[in-house]
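task queued by scheduler; priority normal; single chain, no ligands, no partner chains; default sampling; output format set to structure tokens
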Amino acid sequence: MPSMTRIYVPADSAALALDADALSAAIVAEAGRLGTPVEIVRNGSHGMHWLEPLVEVQTATGRVGYGPVTVADVPGLFAAGWIEGGSHALRIGDPLQHPFMARQTRWTFVRCGIIDPLSWDDFVAQGGGQGLARARALGATATIAAVTASGLRGRGGAGFPAGIKWRTVQETAGELKYVVCNADEGDSGTFADRMLMEGDPLALLEGMVICGLSVGARKGFIYIRSEYPRAIEVLEHALVIARAQGLLADCDIELRVGAGSYVCGEETALLESLEGKRGQVRAKPPLPAHKGLFGRPTVVNNVLTLATVPEVLVRGAEAYAALGYGRSRGTLPFQLAGNIRFGGLFEAPFGMDLGELVDQIGGGTATGRPVRAVQTGGPLGAYFPRELFDTVLDYEAFAARDGLLGHGGIVVFDDTVDMARQARFAMEFCAAESCGKCTPCRVGSVRGMEVIDKILKGHEVAANLALLEDLCNTLKLGSLCALGGFVPYPVMSAVRHFPQDFQRQ
């Protein structure tokens, strides 16, 4: 009887959107027809989205990738001998040796795309659980010291040092403390959290338990957006596996699903929602680290922050701190989206410049037209023209040029984009997503749309541009949270760098 061949068909949302389920069924059917024994493994994505579904065959010499594969390609692949790694137009060889992957430095996503995300054996075989063992050996204070020494900053966008936040919660008195994972990834052009949760969910759970042990929290919550049904499904199964294997013995974790509010990505609005209230921003102080969920000391960290901690403990804080640029240490999973040739996830140390990421890694635009603008940091991030492509990918370097690096989302636009309409979209987005608690955000965003509409009609353009700038200053200085406070970034960067688009006749 011939040996069984393991074939990896991704079940990441990007692959599922491209019919990966039907593809998996077609592979099984064709293998059955040919009498070829196969085992299908539904793994996560490597992050090369232009090649999805990227199918890998385990051969005697290693895994060989083929992509993008459609149902119609399946008979031809079997005929070409792909079970043995045979030659075919879709063959890319070892995915990890592909130029897009070979240039990366993977810490957070070290297992993503490699393992079956719901296999405890795969997780452990690839180093899973070693970070928690290291934390238990070090003890709480030394673990926090290691996280601090690594320079790991919050990957949700704010970039606050993780170790300082953990130490604050550890030192704050309280019989009950909580760990909350902010998985409400709502920025346009961002998908790293989703990819991690779908491709290596146990890494997130391990990071949360390490955090709980370090700060004295026995309970954790993952707050995930409802728009991520596949990630929710994977996490639900991962929690069952983690409990059965004793991973959650020191800090039990529950999954909570949000209701589609963008503002609940802000940590205090998220906590309000977790408590069963309307998702509205709280005034600070008190900080969540002092008085967070149900009034208890709470660590609120992003998915990527928590999932990176185990690897930092395993490989060493010094090794992580040795990567990066300036105060931005370690790696960031950059997400290339929009009008870009090679869209996907690229994890690399801080320090390369924006032009290298867009032009060399991303390959320029998918349309082949010139890149005109790049927006980083989600829908509230600034638009950078090509003249600013020498900006180093670093929190402080972007801030110095009135930009946001944020969650690492990069959205590319070619020369057909109308930047005045992009500015209007920012105001429209804010108006739609405002929680309504503060006047500058609630009212200012609506007034902003009205002012830009007048500009688009060519009505008293100079006067309305001056009014728009005043309005943006009010939003920036008067809003209670970053939703209203950051809307001026896309609006005013569009006005500043692309003034010709606002000169309507």
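post-processing summary
- Residues 156 and 302 are 5 Å apart (CA to CA).
- The mean pLDDT is 95.
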